[in-house]
């Protein structure tokens, strides 16, 4: 009975809940663009707009939200852990700095790398389920998969039954290779941009809502651009299942065969949709996180002047 009040009374509890709010805001705001990115990466042709038009015409607008249950169900824990792990690592890597002083940009980047590597253990199974659901109505899987999944739970149960625990972590290595450096860029860009847009805010925490949205959006864009080719490879690897003939035997094989078949441009296929989504989603994540944190702590304020 007393767990929740005591949990919320701690700094960890409030950061955990604030991170959850940020994650939910990010998923809801950017999921349709994420579906377009996944379908464009796995296809051999077609722009984001043509895929959007075809998907809506054949399956309806709800198809853009197919598979959202998996990331939405786990996003509170996942996103909260990302911010909490980052906070712990950023202090642990430079214990000489007081709690009132912001960590150096070098420590921010290193803490981001560590955060990305650790959170991949949570993210990899979730993205595997999401990708299988997002692609089951596309040309990529229509001819390769006889089963139609009913939802995230059905996908996870099917993978565990056919492939075991190893199957549910298919793509873990490429996920770590993608997320470790991208999270380093992610937090480093956010801290740099918020300080550039609102000098002194790293110490006083008085940045405007506009600063949160723009800095968060640019952080998301930077993190995706730096790792996008790895994300294309990850999508193609995780789209495979033992029920069909495996096209790729690993990361290097997938990279080689993809480039050989479609050229180096295939590694950047869907980047436009990914960048657009990254700006919207991560602007929402950081804004929701910062606003929730201030509300929970009751000791911060958000400037309203010059905000959007």
UniProtKB/TrEMBL annotation:
GO molecular function term, any single one: transmembrane transporter activity
Similarity-based family: Belongs to the mitochondrial carrier (TC 2.A.29) family.
Keyword Transit peptide annotated: no
Membrane topology: Multi-pass membrane protein
Keyword Cytoplasm: no
Repeat (Solcar) residue spans along the chain: 10-92, 103-196, 207-295
UniProt keywords, alphabetically: Membrane, Mitochondrion, Repeat, Transmembrane, Transmembrane helix, Transport
The name this protein goes by in its record: Mitochondrial carrier protein
Gene Ontology annotations for the cellular component aspect, listed alphabetically: mitochondrial membrane
Localization terms from the record: Mitochondrion membrane
Species annotation: Citrus sinensis (Sweet orange)
């Amino acid at each position: 009975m007393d767990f929740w009040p005591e949990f919320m009374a701690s700094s960890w509890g409030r950061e955990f809940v604030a991170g959850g709010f940020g994650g939910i805001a990010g998923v809801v705001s950017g999921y349709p663009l994420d579906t377009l990115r996944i379908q464009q990466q796995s296809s051999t042709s077609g722009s984001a707009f043509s895929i959007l038009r075809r998907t809506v015409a054949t399956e309806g607008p709800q198809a853009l939200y197919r598979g959202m249950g998996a990331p939405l169900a786990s996003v509170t824990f996942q996103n909260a852990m990302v911010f909490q792990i980052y906070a712990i690592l950023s202090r642990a890597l430079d214990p000489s700095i007081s709690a009132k002083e912001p960590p150096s940009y070098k420590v921010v980047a290193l803490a981001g790398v560590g955060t990305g590597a650790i959170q991949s253990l949570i993210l990899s199974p979730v993205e595997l389920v999401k990708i299988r659901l997002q692609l089951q109505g596309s040309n990529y899987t229509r001819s390769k998969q006889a089963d139609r999944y009913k939802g995230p739970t059905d996908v996870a149960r099917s993978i565990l039954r056919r492939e075991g625990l190893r199957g549910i972590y298919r793509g873990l290595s490429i996920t770590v290779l993608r997320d470790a450096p991208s999270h380093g860029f992610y937090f480093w860009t956010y801290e740099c941009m918020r300080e550039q847009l609102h000098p002194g805010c790293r110490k006083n925490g008085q940045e405007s809502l506009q600063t949160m949205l723009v800095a968060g959006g640019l952080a998301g864009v930077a993190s995706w651009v730096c790792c996008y080719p790895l994300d294309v490879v990850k999508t193609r690897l995780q789209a495979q299942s033992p029920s069909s003939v495996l096209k790729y035997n690993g990361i290097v094989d997938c990279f080689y065969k993809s480039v050989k078949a479609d050229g180096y441009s295939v590694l950047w296929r869907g980047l436009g949709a990914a960048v657009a989504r990254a700006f919207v989603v991560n602007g929402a994540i950081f804004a929701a996180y910062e606003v929730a944190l201030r509300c929970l702590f009751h000791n911060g304020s958000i400037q309203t002047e010059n905000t959007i």
